[in-house]
Design goal:
The protein is an all-alpha fold. The protein has a domain at 95-191. Helices cover 73% and strands 0% of the residues. The longest helix is centred in the first third of the chain and has 121 residues, at 2-122. It starts with a helix and ends with a helix.
């Protein structure tokens, strides 16, 4: 009986172990099935992620090409702009130099005209009006440059070279060096 009892206990233990093994196998099979399904979903997710990464790489390459192209165009524009700025600076300096030379020449012409007026007053010359600066280089213009106002030379002078005064202006109108000065004086006189 001991052997029968022992055999029965062993059978019960084997049945319990077999039941545990069957349950474990069933549970493992269920989890493997879930893992296989998850693996398919995970593979699909990985495929999507790979596609997104490839699209991002393509977009980055296109952006790099566009940046290179636009960067080259921008660099060319910057170089052209710098070149134009340098040229404009040179033109500005040349214009300033020319304006200074013209201003000096004009002041020399005015000074020469004023000195002629003073000489005429000292010598009691009958005519007090200013004679225009001759276009050729003279001793009064050391630079050899003089400013000519063709309107004044053609329209505003008497035959003796002095400025003609309008009837409504007083005698001071004849003391100007150019037509522009005379017109400015006339306009200011009319306003006052």
């Amino acid at each position: 009986m001991n052997i029968a009892l022992l055999s029965m206990v062993m059978d019960v233990v084997i049945v319990v172990l077999l039941a545990g093994t069957i349950y474990y196998a069933y549970s493992l099979a269920k989890q493997l099935k879930i893992f296989r399904q998850s693996k398919g979903e995970f593979e699909a997710l990985l495929m999507q992620l790979t596609g997104q990464i490839n699209a991002a790489n393509d977009a980055i390459e296109h952006m790099q090409e566009a940046a290179d192209t636009n960067g080259q165009a921008l660099n060319k524009l910057i170089r052209d702009g710098q070149f134009l700025a340098d040229e404009l600076q040179m033109v500005n300096e040349a214009s300033n130099n020319l304006a200074n030379r013209l201003e000096r020449a004009a002041s020399l012409g005015r000074n020469a005209g004023t000195m002629r007026d003073e000489d005429a007053l000292v010598n009691d010359a009958p005519q007090v009006s200013v004679a225009p600066v001759e276009p050729a280089a003279s001793a009064t213009s050391p630079s050899g440059f003089s400013i000519r106002d063709r309107e004044v030379e053609d329209d505003g002078h008497d035959h003796d070279g002095s400025f003609m005064a309008d009837d409504d202006d007083d005698e001071d109108v004849g003391n100007f060096h150019s037509q522009a000065e005379r017109e400015l004086y006339t306009a200011l006189k009319r306003k006052s």
